[in-house]
Amino acid sequence: MKVDVLDLKGNKVREVELPASVFEAPINIDLMHQAYTRQMANARLGTHETKVRGEVRGGGRKPWKQKGTGRARQGSRRAAQWVGGGGIHTPHPRSYELRMPKKMRQAALRSALSVKASEASLVIVDELNFDEPKTKVVAQTLGNLVGASTALLLMPAKDQNYDLVMRGTSNIESAKVLLASYLNVRDILNFEKVVLPAKTIDALVAHLG
Fold first, then answer.
1. First vs last C-alpha separation in the chain
2. Are 108 and 35 in contact (CB under 8 A)?
3. In this structure, are strands 175-179 and 193-197 parallel, antiparallel, or unpaired?
4. Buried (b) or exposed (e) across 166-191, using 16+ Cβ within 10 A?
5. Helix, strand, or coil here: 6?
6. Which segments of the chain does DSSP mark as H helices, in order?
7. Which domains are present in the chain?
8. Exposure b/e, 62-77, CB count within 10 A at least 16 = b
9. Is 9 helix (H, G, I), strand (E, B) or coil?
10. Residue 175 near residue 150 (C-beta atoms within 8 A)
11. Can you tell me the distance from the alpha carbon of 31 to that of 51, in angstroms, rounded to the nearest whole number?
């Protein structure tokens, strides 16, 4: 698949051939859904805690005698049916972690990138370089490249240029900067456009196999 390579003003400078192994992979919706569900589940803290009847206060004595009152028998005010009693089947700290083999995660990422490529939602930039981290400059550049669409910027490596792009994008709600090695299905699907400097293509091929 050949796509246009743009400069920072949005003008075509050349064409590039996208690797078919990454950008023309079979689209597996079920696999992408599994990777998305796993990512969301692993982000959960699982620190919720409630008290059971052995942890709440009170209940030191039987509320009333067993027989002769006409009321239902009760053994403790800590039981669940009492106001202030302990909970039953309530949440406690646990791990929500879901496991997924590495090859399946990579296949899900290739599938998500292939979806973006098929929708013409990939924007290839010759070089994404800025002299200083100015939000105004970065916002103007994104306007030239993607217009009013939300954008995920994938950088090839964590270097000085990455820091400049990151700082210049920090106040732009419609954009996010991510390293190619940190690519995930949720960010690919949540943003309308994926902006790739040309060097990032090689980094994706190395990361996704």
1. 18
2. yes
3. unpaired
4. bbbbeebeebbbbbbeebbbbbbeeb
5. strand
6. 20-23, 29-42, 102-118, 135-146, 160-169, 185-190, 198-208
7. 2-27+100-208 (3.40.1370.10)
8. eeeeeeeeeeeebebb
9. coil
10. yes
11. 38
14 three-state secondary structure: strand
121, two tokens: 């939602």
Tokens, residue 116? 């973006």
Tens-level pLDDT at each residue, the chain (209 residues): 889 999 999 899 999 999 999 999 999 999 999 999 999 999 999 999 999 999 999 888 999 999 999 999 999 999 999 999 999 999 999 999 999 999 999 999 999 999 999 999 999 999 888 888 899 999 999 999 999 899 999 999 998 889 999 999 999 999 999 999 999 999 999 999 999 999 999 999 999 87
